């Protein structure tokens, strides 16, 4: 039975008039809606099915936006978007100019904090709570909703420490589903596992007091002996002591799918002054069998699927995924090089690292959502003669910038970075576009940066990086599948400072790398008979090919640099710097990502928006050559 038309919802205030059975029926409607809509658009199904009741309870108990809900990562905010009047936009979810898959302040006053990366919610909520106090809004509550996976992030632990020390009025909802993108790891995960099996603290506390009194012979004297001994015994018997020691009042564990229990617990928490933790146990994928049974993170975020079977609908694939090529190459090298280890911050599923883990589990280290730790852990291994590989997404690598600069490059340690999702990633939008890593790596001494034109060259670049023993080296590669280039079985080393002329030409030289080499070849074909285009595969982004650049300067040929990365401080900038240092003044046109954030949409749509589709590039190149020729007359 449908309780209401979800598109009629304008704000969550109506929830306060609903009975628990009506809320439960509404939750069933929302689950059904999400399963049906995401089958068409794709998206983060598992996380959102797991927070239906929790989101209903939060909006029932608190008064958003007066009370500020801060979602960690934000991929689990679809139910929140439904309850705040955006149901009718779900046909456009994660599509160009459509509804964002993460909280977006310009979409609604109820989205008070934008995010896409993990572990930021507690710091943001504390900042909001401080502002509430300073502005005389002490009764407004800041509520952070964070998953158990995100709690492993160092930033979250720093914020827990500060919130507890300052006794700030922040309510932390710990959404414990034992998963982030992949199954969680680490001691904190294990501690939460023990707490899940424990009884609620609000009941257990009184029971432990009674238990202490009834310990034979010593019970009464223990009770009289002061708080210290009692606290020691409580630590062994009561869940939540870890959080209470940090200064939080702990409630839980609470069944995250029992609305009566949730409402009661949140009402308790709302009345407490100072920091509060509400530990909620949820099931990722709740209500949809294929997602519930997912033990590896497939249903965390995915494309369209068939509702009846749960089969993911895949398009036609030309070649193997770039991630798979990288993982299999590392595994192959590790078979003969015992120094090779593999470290990842919770990206084992996305980067397809299972082949390495199955063969070398003792050399595989999934550190959870802890990018800074991952990078410095690799540095420590490198000092002892190992050959660590850090497998990391471009967007998450920026979180470990200081570790790259201070711990790895400054010591010139032999660490290999394989940087997944380099370039535009599409539907996840501005928080996930991998367009900044060249700019933030290029100016750091000692590191080399590589990117292959196709899957065949990629395996050889990864192999070459693993054979390189003179400092840190990074191999970038895009999201998605290769172009179908035949793969050789024998790996070979490639020179790490030499570019490749892919196609000759006399009027203009396009310097590019990665998938843009194919774009440049298409531009060449489009301009055939009008402009003679030379295409150069600049696969070593750093260092530049000094010999080839010097020859281009001497030839006087106009140069176009093309990159699916930030122009500011990027590859094109490095070419101009090289020319300036050489006392040369070539005609250079830089094409790349402009100085702004690129939002969500199909990759080709986004490229068209910024003028980087082959036909647009061809127009730019032709105009550039024409202007250059006129100036030379």
Would you mind describing this structure in some detail?
The protein is an alpha/beta fold and 633 residues long. The chain folds into three domains: 6-183 and 241-289, Rossmann fold, CATH 3.40.50.970; 324-476, Thiamin diphosphate (ThDP)-binding fold, Pyr/PP domains (Rossmann fold), CATH 3.40.50; 500-632, Rossmann fold (3-Layer(aba) Sandwich), CATH 3.40.50.920. Helix content is 40%, strand content 14%. It is built from 25 helices and 17 strands. The strands form three sheets. It has a seven-stranded mixed sheet, sandwiched between helices. Helix 6 (154-166) links the parallel strand 2 (142-147) and strand 3 (170-176). The longest helix has 22 residues, at 20-41. The radius of gyration is 27 Å and the shape is globular. The chain starts with 19 loop residues before the first helix and ends with a helix.
List keywords for this structure.
633 residues; alpha/beta; Rossmann fold; 3 domains; five-stranded parallel beta sheet
Proper CATH architecture of the largest domain: 3-Layer(aba) Sandwich
Radius of gyration: 27 Å
Total domains: 3
Low-confidence stretches: 222-227
User: Helix content range of the residues, please?
Assistant: 25-40%
Distance between the termini: 78 Å
Q: How many strands appear in the DSSP assignment?
A: 17
Percent strand equals: 5-15%
Sequence of strands across the biggest β-sheet: 7-6-8-9-11-10-15
What is the residue-averaged pLDDT? 91
Q: What characteristic shape results from the CA principal axes?
A: globular
- Tally of helical segments: 25
The CATH class label of the largest domain is: Alpha Beta
């Amino acid at each position: 039975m449908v309780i209401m038309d979800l598109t009629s919802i304008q704000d969550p205030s109506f929830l306060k008039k609903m009975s628990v059975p009506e809320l439960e029926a509404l939750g069933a409607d929302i689950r059904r809606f999400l399963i049906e809509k995401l089958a068409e658009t794709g998206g983060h199904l598992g996380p959102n099915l797991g927070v239906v009741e929790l989101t209903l309870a939060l909006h029932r108990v608190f008064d958003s936006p007066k009370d500020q809900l801060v979602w960690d990562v934000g991929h689990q905010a679809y139910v929140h978007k439904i309850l705040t009047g955006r149901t009718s936009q779900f046909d456009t979810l994660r599509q160009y100019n459509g509804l964002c898959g993460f909280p977006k302040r310009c979409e609604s006053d109820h989205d008070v904090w934008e995010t896409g990366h993990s572990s930021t919610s507690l710091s943001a909520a504390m900042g909001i709570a401080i502002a509430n106090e300073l502005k005389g809004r002490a009764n407004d509550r800041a509520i952070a909703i964070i998953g158990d996976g995100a709690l492993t992030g160092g930033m979250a632990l720093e914020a827990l420490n500060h919130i507890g020390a300052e006794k700030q009025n922040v309510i932390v909802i710990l959404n414990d589903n034992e998963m982030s993108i992949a199954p969680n790891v680490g001691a904190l995960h294990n501690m939460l596992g023990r707490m899940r099996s424990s009884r609620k603290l609000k009941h257990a506390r009184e029971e432990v007091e009674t238990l202490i009194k009834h310990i034979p012979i010593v019970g009464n004297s223990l009770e009289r002996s002061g708080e210290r001994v009692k606290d020691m015994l409580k630590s062994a018997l009561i869940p939540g002591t870890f959080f209470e020691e940090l200064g939080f009042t702990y409630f839980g564990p609470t069944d995250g799918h029992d609305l009566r229990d949730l409402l009661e617990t949140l009402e308790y928490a709302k009345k407490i002054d100072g920091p509060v933790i509400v530990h909620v146990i949820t099931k990722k994928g709740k209500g949809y069998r294929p997602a519930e049974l997912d033990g590896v993170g497939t249903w965390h975020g995915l494309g369209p699927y068939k509702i009846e079977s749960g089969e993911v609908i895949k398009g036609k694939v030309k070649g193997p995924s770039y991630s798979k090529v990288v993982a299999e190459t590392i595994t192959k090298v590790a078979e003969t090089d015992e120094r090779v280890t593999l470290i990842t911050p919770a990206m084992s599923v996305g980067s397809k690292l299972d082949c390495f883990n199955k063969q070398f589990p003792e050399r595989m280290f999934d550190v959870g959502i802890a990018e800074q730790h991952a990078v410095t852990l690799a540095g420590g291994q490198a000092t002892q003669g190992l050959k660590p590989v850090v497998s990391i997404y471009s967007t998450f690598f920026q979180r470990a910038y200081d570790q790259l600069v201070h711990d790895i490059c400054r010591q010139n340690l032999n660490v290999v970075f394989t940087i997944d999702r380099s370039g535009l990633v599409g539907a996840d939008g501005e928080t996930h576009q991998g367009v900044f890593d060249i700019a933030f790596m290029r100016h750091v001494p000692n590191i080399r940066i590589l990117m292959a034109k196709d899957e065949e060259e990629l395996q050889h670049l990864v192999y070459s990086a693993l054979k390189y023993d003179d400092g840190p080296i990074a191999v970038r590669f895009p999201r998605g599948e290769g172009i179908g280039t035949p793969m050789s079985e024998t790996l070979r080393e490639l020179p790490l400072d030499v570019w490749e002329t892919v196609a000759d030409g006399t009027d203009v030289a396009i310097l590019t790398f990665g998938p843009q080499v194919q774009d440049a070849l298409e531009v060449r074909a489009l301009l055939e008979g009008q402009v003679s285009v030379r295409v150069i595969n600049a696969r070593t982004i750093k260092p530049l090919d000094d010999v080839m650049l010097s020859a281009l300067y001497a030839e006087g040929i106009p140069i176009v640099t093309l990159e699916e990365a930030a122009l500011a401080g990027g590859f094109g900038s490095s070419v101009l710097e090289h020319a300036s240092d050489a006392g040369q003044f070539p005609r250079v046109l830089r094409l790349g990502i402009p100085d702004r954030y690129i939002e969500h949409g199909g990759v080709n749509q986004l490229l068209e928006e910024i003028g980087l589709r082959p036909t647009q590039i061809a127009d730019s190149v032709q105009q550039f050559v024409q202007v250059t020729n006129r100036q030379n007359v």
